[in-house]
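Hi R.,

Here's the input for the adenosine-5'-diphosphate complex you asked about:
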Amino acid sequence: MSLLEISDLDVHYRRRVGRLHALRGVSLSLSPGETVGVIGETGSGKSTLARAVLGLVRPTSGRIVVDGSDVAAFNQRQWRELRRRGIVQYVFQDPLKSLDPDLTIAESLAEPLRIQGSADIHDTVRKILSRVRLDGSLLDRLPGELSGGQRQRVAVARALITSPRLVLLDEPVSALDSANRVQVLELLKELRDAGTALLFISHDLGSVAGVADRIAVLYQGEVVEDRPASSVINEPVHPYTRLLVSSAPTLRSAAAGRAARGELRTLLNLEGAPV
Ligand code: ADP
Ligand code: MG
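And here is the predicted structure with adenosine-5'-diphosphate in place:
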């Protein structure tokens, strides 16, 4: 069974004048442990998709089934319960939006555990911090006292601390410099390899290419491709995808003729392509 099943999702935003059709008939599914990349240009509806799955935007029509429940019709109480269970977590582009500026890093990390009523909060917080390779001395700091890269790793740690089955990542590396980007992408690969399902949203094909099993391309609110990553890169079909692939020459030459994800990843790492 799918962990996430989006069918025929439409989202309209009400504007001062008329409506904006942000998503049109979007269908996308994700199996347990699978990593799906969603790429598209600015305004193509990527964040709307993530926000609909998280219950932050109400779909105009369509179904969103998370772990067997149709969340599109969820009320506040049902959302709270789903969040408490910690099955779905998220990381946004700007970690300051996923972290409370007035809570220390220790408090931010402990919060989801406290909501779940788990024991051993202190221990779990320490373990997760070392998993994202941050020093324990950061625990007493406020988010504003950390670098952007450190903050994003805290945001990833916070998303992971409840051992979610699905993590939604909306442009998680777009605000990072290249060294931090590489580190966070490595972290995402570890997560994927440990069996966490990821929905990895980015405008940057290069970031997604090394992590995703499958890539879906959103163009003006519609999914125009949804295939194995190597197939999208090697044989892009939609004109927009062709444009993306041709403007990332390293990616294409690295990917040429290589179907296996492992091979693709090794190449990207070796050739220093923009992963
Ligand atoms: P992306 O994340 O791919 O850049 P978004 O999902 O943020 O795209 O936006 C898709 C479209 O919906 C854009 O045209 C954007 O301007 C519009 N939009 C996003 N949020 C709102 C909102 N709250 N109200 C009205 N329009 C919105
Ligand atoms: Mg966005």
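One thing worth noting: The first strand starts at residue 4 and ends at 14.

Cheers,
M.
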